[in-house]
Design goal:
Blueprint: E1 42-43, E2 47-55, E3 59-66, E4 71-78, E5 84-85, E6 94-95, H1 99-118, E7 130-136, E8 139-145, E9 149-151, H2 152-159, H3 164-183, E10 196-199, E11 204-206, H4 245-261, H5 268-273, H6 289-298, H7 310-318, H8 339-352, E12 365-367, E13 380-382, H9 391-400, E14 404-411, E15 421-424, E16 431-433, E17 437-443, E18 448-450, H10 459-468, E19 472-478, E20 487-490, E21 497-499, E22 503-509, E23 520-522, H11 531-539, E24 543-551, E25 561-565, E26 571-573, E27 576-583, E28 588-590, H12 599-608, E29 612-618, E30 628-631, E31 638-640, E32 644-650
Parallel strand pairs: 7-12, 14-17, 19-22, 24-27, 29-32
Antiparallel strand pairs: 1-2, 2-3, 3-4, 4-8, 5-6, 7-8, 9-10, 10-11, 13-16, 15-17, 18-21, 20-22, 23-26, 25-27, 28-31, 30-32
Length: about 725
């Protein structure tokens, strides 16, 4: 039985509750509009629909709850009011016929495609994460993380404006997101205060990617959402405008201008006729001349004179010297923006507010084909969703669906646990031929690393070494038995294998009290001694050891001192340092995890750490031909450099000897051969002919030509 939840905030409710004690939502409240889904609707037997968070020309964003993962979400429904509607008390959409149906379908494909392209940005913290995308009710849905906070627009309506110091961190966060998005050849095209979200813990999230992509034709009135007054550059007002990264730069600069002045810039079309935009300093804003020049360069009307990329904008905002770029243009009678365009633009701008759910990020499970209630034709099958399933379970489920499941790769993931399916080559719900090959990629879990030994190292060098190893460093400074400014203690043991992103605590020593710099001490021969033992001995005489590096050695055990400076016999004042080089012992390397990689990839990975491979070929029903089934030396084990690692490479499915029918003639169904002691009756016996030789060679497998680009996230 489903738990009773508040449709306003998704907290659990007592059975008799009428109002939510947290948010005050009344149980049984009707949908805001007749075409909204009723609160309490469940999609895909997984996603609970709550109240509406926003709606407009392209769709509706609902509060949602993932009943499987037990967490609150936001769910965006594609519902362009120009092409479709929903009748009261129904979940299925009613799509208008004719050209509008064509535009609806084309827009839906772009809706899904946009989410698929944005799924690459899971690692970009300023982009909202997308968890799922699927089709149902004749439309499409995107499930994303729920954000608790407010839009920049809401904050500015409350505060009026911000100081430059308050605004710049927001702008830099959005620029970081844009750099990643632009690198994938995606334009946002709708950056404005209502599409920048500030969470309660002051994280910045860029919302509503590519809203214009969902308008399917220039005949659609929905294209008016492109013209967000004051924030859209002039090229967005032209059907053949030269749009690029500079388009988003202009919009973000306009947001920056609004944040620090409290004034929305004039419309770009009006500026192209007569530019009266004032510099923020002329409006009383305290802003440095170089920062102001960077802002005004990004707000230049003409594309040619404008800052071209997000990276360039960021660099100029941080630069010590920025020259103002002013380009005189030829006068042209382009006229002012007609009043009817302004009215439509305002309507579109209001509608686009509801698009604060469409966004992106990383690991994603798409259902672009949807689950149809229609009967699957004979000889065909429907692809199940195997993502996040244990590998063995996924293979079994695929085989139950009469599919040939093949493992193609293993990749690190922070989202999907180790040995579960990370992605699949064919989207779930797709109808394919029986025995079609379905490729899957297995999660390797979080990438591993080894903890370096930083004891005795100078603090900055030690911190960098730990960061390079993928660890998160937390340090404290206190009196300790180590040279001042060096590491006296680390929380994780050296050479320990752990997850990247693990936190490590270190103590930066302030040294110990005592010692007299007027007294001298003789330096002993420390070579061959254990570092910790030698450090204690020298400390008793107020001399400190400083670890100046580590080297591999075949003669000095790990942790022993290879050489020192100054040499034995020298004399040093108390509280002085002795620099030493510490042995790492014989050179050992961590064995890479090459399972499910191609033989070529496995060879390269082994060679990159100084290991060789020995290949053993083995048949496999489930691992793709040419990929590694398993490795004899476990991943992560440390072995001597130059060693050989045995890997087992798949030759494909086992070759099976075809069975010969009793009459030695081809038959559609293989039969057991006739026993020699059971002769065929004379009247039906075929002429005695020599049987064709049986072969043990299985039919050659067709090369699938699988390109690595099959992966869902690519």
């Amino acid at each position: 039985m489903m738990e009773r939840r508040c449709m306003g905030c998704m907290r659990l409710l007592e059975e008799e509750a009428v109002y939510c004690p947290d948010c005050g939502y009344k149980v049984g409240t009707a949908p805001l509009e007749a075409y909204h889904m009723a609160p309490g609707t469940v999609l895909e037997e997984r996603y609970l629909i709550g109240r509406v968070l926003g709606f407009g020309g392209f769709g509706i964003t609902y509060l949602g709850y993932d009943l499987v993962l037990d967490k609150k979400t936001a769910i965006k429904e594609y519902l362009p009011g120009e092409f479709a509607t929903r009748m009261p008390n129904q979940t299925q959409l009613t799509i208008y016929s004719g050209e509008k149906e064509e535009q609806f379908q084309a827009g839906k494909e772009k809706f899904i495609d946009e989410a698929r392209r944005l799924a690459k940005f899971q690692s970009v913290p300023e982009v909202v994460h997308v968890f799922d995308c699927f089709e149902a009710n004749d439309t499409a849905y995107i499930v994303m993380e729920f954000l608790d906070g407010e839009t920049l627009k809401t904050r500015l309506e409350r505060t009026g404006k911000m100081s430059v110091e308050q605004a710049l961190p927001v702008i830099f966060d959005v620029l970081h997101a844009l750099e990643a998005v632009h690198e994938e050849k995606i334009l946002h095209r709708d950056i404005a205060p209502d599409n920048i979200f500030i969470t309660k813990d002051d994280q910045i999230k860029l919302l509503d990617f590519g809203a214009a992509r969902f308008a399917t034709t220039t005949r659609s009135r929905s294209l008016t959402v492109l013209f967000k007054p004051g924030y859209a550059p002039e090229e967005q007002y032209r059907s053949r405008g030269d749009q690029g990264t500079w388009t988003d730069v202009y919009s973000l600069a306009a947001v920056f201008y609004r944040m620090i002045t409290g004034i929305t810039p004039e419309d770009a079309l009006e500026r192209s006729v007569h530019d009266t935009l004032k510099r923020p300093s002329k409006l009383g804003v305290k802003i440095g001349p170089n920062t102001e020049n960077a802002l005004m360069n990004a707000l230049n009307v003409t594309v040619e004179s404008r800052t071209q990329t997000a990276k360039q904008f960021e660099d100029e905002l941080m630069a010590n010297v920025v020259k103002r770029i002013v380009v005189k243009k030829e006068e042209a009678d382009v006229g002012r923006w007609p009043r009817w365009v302004k009215v439509l633009a305002a309507v579109g701008a209001a509608g686009i507010l509801t698009f604060a759910g469409l966004m992106a990020a990383g690991v994603i499970r798409f259902d672009a084909a949807g689950w149809s209630v229609n009967k699957v034709p004979e000889g065909k099958t429907r692809v199940p969703n195997l993502v996040n399933e244990e590998m063995e379970t996924a293979i079994a489920r695929g085989q139950e669906a009469k599919l040939n499941v093949q493992v193609y790769d293993k990749q690190y993931s922070e989202e999907i646990p180790e040995n579960k399916v990370l992605s699949q080559t064919i989207k779930r719900g797709t109808v394919v031929e029986e025995n079609e090959t379905l490729g899957i990629i297995i999660s390797a879990g979080i990438e591993k690393t080894y903890v370096p030994n930083v004891i005795g190292m100078e603090s900055e060098e030690a911190k960098q070494l730990l960061k390079d190893a993928g660890l998160v460093v937390n340090s404290t400074q206190k009196e300790y038995r180590a040279a001042p400014g060096t590491i006296g203690w680390q929380s994780l043991e050296p050479d320990l294998e752990t997850d990247t992103g693990t936190a490590i605590e270190i103590i930066i020593s302030e040294g110990i009290k005592g010692g007299d710099s007027s007294k001298e001490e003789a330096v002993e021969d420390l070579t061959g001694k254990d570092y910790d033992t030698a450090a204690d001995e020298m400390l008793a005489r107020y001399l400190y050891l400083v670890n100046k590096g580590a080297e591999y050695s075949d003669t000095v055990e790990a942790g022993g001192i290879i050489r020192q400076e100054p040499a034995a016999g020298s004399r040093l004042s108390q509280n002085s340092n002795i620099s030493v080089i510490v042995s790492l012992g014989r050179e050992l390397v961590g064995v890479p995890d090459v399972q499910y990689k191609t033989q070529e990839e496995a060879t390269a990975m082994m060679e990159s750490v100084g290991l060789g491979i020995e290949v053993v070929q083995e048949a496999s029903d489930t691992v793709a031909q040419g990929n590694v089934i398993r490795q004899e030396t476990p991943a992560g084990e440390r072995i001597e450099k130059g060693s050989q690692v045995v890997i087992y490479v798949s030759t494909g499915a086992p070759q099976r000897q075809p069975e010969r029918p009793a009459n030695n003639r081809p038959a559609q169904q293989p039969q057991q051969p006739q026993p020699q002691n059971n002769p065929v009756p004379q009247e039906t016996a075929p002429p005695q002919t020599e049987a064709p030789p049986q072969t043990t060679q299985a039919p050659a497998q067709e090369d699938s030509g699988m390109n690595p680009a099959f992966r869902l996230l690519e």
